[in-house]
Amino acid sequence: MHLRVLVLLLSMMVSSLNSISADEPDARPRTRDLGIAPGVFKPGKSNAITDVAGVKVGQVTLIDGKDIRTGVTAILPHEGNLFQQKTPAAVFIGNAFGKLAGSTQVEELGNLETPIILTNTLSVGTAVEAVVKWSLTQPGNENVRSVNALVGETNDGGLNDIRGQHVRGPHVVQAIEAAQSGIVEEGCVGAGTGCIAFGWKGGIGTSSRTLPQRYGGYTVGVLVQANFGGVLQVDGLPVGKVLGKHTFAETPPVSPPAPLKPGDGSCMIVVATDAPLDPRNLKRLAARALFGLARTGSSYTNGSGDFAIAFSTNPDLRVAYGEEKIQTQPTLPNDAVSPLFQAALETTEEAVYNALLKATPMQGRDGRKVEALPLEPLRALIEKREQSLAE
């Protein structure tokens, strides 16, 4: 038993080192470095989901040999005991060709009681088991008899040996315990390691918006696991069409051998806000995040599982485990939520761009290589538009 644990820990260490040395994502820009600023609201300090106070993100990247390209991303809604202090939450489904374990209870009860875990399709069961075990060991949960783990996925089988189910329970726990605030690593990391989007290398992306005080000063943050198809648009620029690389192009967007089916993949979107929203309006907020995918050129194809999970970190709205008293905490009225909806659209759009821009080329299963979104053609399109507007 001790030998098996040691081997697994060494494997995790090697994977982390490989993920660092594989490419240099820091050399690639984020969206705003290119002069693109989607929407009208300003981003938060880190322009990340962690700009919502209390939210933390942890990631474990598994890159090993020629065909292991996967990982885990964990999002923690607050720093306390998530089971004992549940957060209001909701789920919106754009296309249900996917797995979001635990979503039915979130829909029924309107709250979240564990970290949100993102991974690959065939590792959902492993992640659920790991989250349940981790939750049961937390101080104060000694008498807990039921845990609703929320685990989402995308299929990274194009680059990853997904059938090998290389994500193990300790990887999930490591991601949870590594969660931190501040800057979130993007691109080929965590659950985004093996992702492909619009025929280019996809992955993890994030963004945030802080509303003006006249709208409450609330923050909305989004994290995406971008692994979907369509015809890429960047800030309205027809990138996929101009470059002839998209889901419906005559030439497959991803190199042989064994081309992928058009549109295979998914997109998981996690939306956090500190605004006092009840589950009904959180579901409406989650819907706007999914609508934001359309701005990037998503086709919401048959094989794409498109899910959005939204939660509020507002401490006054947390539900204590076993609480039976009448809850009287104030929530935002319907007439006050439109600015939050706009923020969700903007952050989702920019998070997808960040996932594409920070991702680096990757070769994986069966020798398939996926290129990163080329920067020079994109810069040329941006410059051409600027010149046109200046005339």
UniProtKB/TrEMBL annotation:
Record-level Gene Ontology MF annotations: aminopeptidase activity
Keywords per UniProt: Aminopeptidase, Hydrolase, Protease, Signal
Tree of life domain: Bacteria
Signal peptide: 1-21
Keyword Hydrolase in record: yes
Family: Belongs to the peptidase S58 family.
Classification via PANTHER family: BLR5678 PROTEIN, D-AMINOPEPTIDASE
Name of this protein: Aminopeptidase
